[in-house]
Specification:
five-stranded mixed sheet; mainly beta; 1 helix; OB fold (Dihydrolipoamide Acetyltransferase, E2P)
Length: 108
């Protein structure tokens, strides 16, 4: 479940283990470019309109763990979305990654 949102990503707390980790916006770039909407506590996809809001349930995978710093890094796992006819659709196509500056933002 999403437990916090910031301009650089969102935190997810696992229900079973109560572990919290960060999903970075850099890991989401292959799906869309996300902007932080501070007033709504969410990240919104610029092309897709996909929102990540506090309290949303998401599927994640662990990509890094630092025991010394007690930090977990997660990646969001896109799941198929059911349609009205009951047939699952695959997630929309992935967007190619663009070159990032040292600060993790796209150069303009």
């Amino acid at each position: 479940m999403i437990s916090g949102v910031a301009s650089f990503g969102f935190w997810v707390e696992t229900v079973e283990h109560k572990c919290e980790g960060l999903v970075s916006v850099n890991s989401l770039l292959e799906y869309d470019e996300f902007r932080h909407v501070e007033s709504d506590y969410c990240l919104v996809g610029m092309r897709s309109g996909r929102k990540f809001r506090m309290g949303d349930k998401v599927r994640i995978k662990v990509v890094a763990a630092n025991l010394v710093k007690r930090q977990l890094d997660y990646e969001w796992v896109a799941v198929s979305e059911p349609t009205t006819d009951g047939v699952e659709q695959k997630p929309k196509h992935k967007v190619k990654k663009k070159e990032l500056s040292r600060r993790g933002h796209r150069d303009r």
